[in-house]
Amino acid sequence: MQSFYPSQIIEYLYCPRYTYFEYVLRIPQNEVKYFKVERGREIHDEKLERNKEYLRKKIGVTRKWTDMYLGNDYLRGKVDEVLELEDGSYAPLDYKFALWKDRIFETYAQQLYCYAILIEDTYNKPVNKGFLVYTRSRNKLVEVPIDENAKSKVRQSTGEMLKIIDGNKFPKATKFKKRCLNCTYRNICTK
Ligand code: SF4
User: Fold this and answer.
1) Model's pTM, two decimal places?
2) By alpha-carbon position, which residue is closest to atom 4 of ligand 1?
3) Among 97, 82, 93, 81, which Cα is nearest to 40's?
4) How many Cα atoms sit within 13 Å of 120 on the Cβ side?
């Protein structure tokens, strides 16, 4: 069965036609990736420098596993850290080579929702929140609530993505016309 990376779900949520163009017609996006989840050398370097003890103090971590590649029937991804918290729940933590801009970007939140599902399925523990660390803002730690609604929306999205891919279905355009202005598929898409 096909499983999706968080970045693919983020693209689907931006516009379902991304899924169609990219995975049914197999037309790659241009090199400009608007939703690419930041990865790379800088993050790696920052991670080496991080103070490993500060997490335990700040959020009451009892155990943690780093760089966990997790998957289930419909999702997969690599979680920077899986944390066990004092109340027995678990939480994903993701490092961002980014500045904190006083709000949580939807793409970052969606990524944590995906990780929450993967952790629940792998460890059989509840996940009610996740954490982001903004390495360019002196490792600012931000807590992100994760409720059932957020998780079921991800599950629903993967089901709809499968319908597009397996059923060769051309989906409706995004309701947000402004998104078409910057879209890499705008020249081939009949909006
Ligand atoms: S041009 Fe608009 S409708 Fe078409 S794929 Fe891009 S965002 Fe979606």
Assistant:
1) 0.87
2) 189
3) 97
4) 17
